[in-house]
Amino acid sequence: LFKTYKFMMKDELLESVAYLKNKGFDNPEIGIVLGTGLGKLVDSVEDPIEAHYNHIPFFPLATVEFHTGKLVYGTISGKKVVVMQGRFHLYEGYDFLDITYPIRVMHMLGISKLFISNAAGAVNLNFKKGDMMLIEDHINLQGGSPLAFKGVSEFGERFADMSEPYDLDMRNKLTTIAKDLNISLKSGVYASVVGPQLETRAEYRMIKLIGADAVGMSTVPEVIVANHLSLPIVAVSVLTDECDPDNLKPVDIAEIISIAEKTEPKMVKLFQELIKQL
What we know:
Layout: H1 9-23, E1 30-34, E2 46-52, E3 70-76, E4 79-85, H2 96-109, E5 113-122, E6 132-140, H3 168-180, E7 186-192, H4 201-209, E8 214-216, H5 220-228, E9 233-242, H6 253-277
Parallel strand pairs: 1-4, 1-5, 5-9, 6-7, 7-8
Antiparallel strand pairs: 2-3, 3-4, 5-8, 6-9
């Protein structure tokens, strides 16, 4: 999957960062990655400055129709943030380094915390459509790693520790915030697959058997790189369908987007309050 010229990435990153700083992206504290159907958080960004991906040097381009493809810089709850509206996936034909390039850019801009959201399917049948799940751990079923390239040790320890990939302190804070706001927040393990096809009945059974509560097509590469950069992460899945292999119905993408959009205001409240408390 990897291109031989990737050892030049450091120069490319410096150019991307210089472009964004020149636009006014000044020392953001928190980076936020928004998943499918979860782009409305940008509406709460005060004094926004936008940079479309196709204008940022060396940035990949979003190809999924419901991912708009821009970085938004501004303030949420009194903190400087940079929000990634539209992410990249293996199923679009990107490699792991393309997918995680924006995480490295946000880190070089100065973020010290990373928030991630995604839309996922509920494999744990105690979870329902419209629930939110705080990710406590993950299973990488994408068949590769964003750290498997020559020169990775220039960016951090090659053998990155993944014993606690999601920051315990932020997870505890978010759990307390959810209780205080009377918002239901489950907790569980996220499995990441390649996609774009949805899973078969047998695959859902396997994913449940190996210990996952939800399944999606993103997040894990970004989390691996964030851990490599010693960047604390908190991640929330919005569960948009129920993956019951004994009662499996054909997938309705429009319904998945609709459920994500309906649940999103609760996720925005959680993120806003967490930002305030950090």
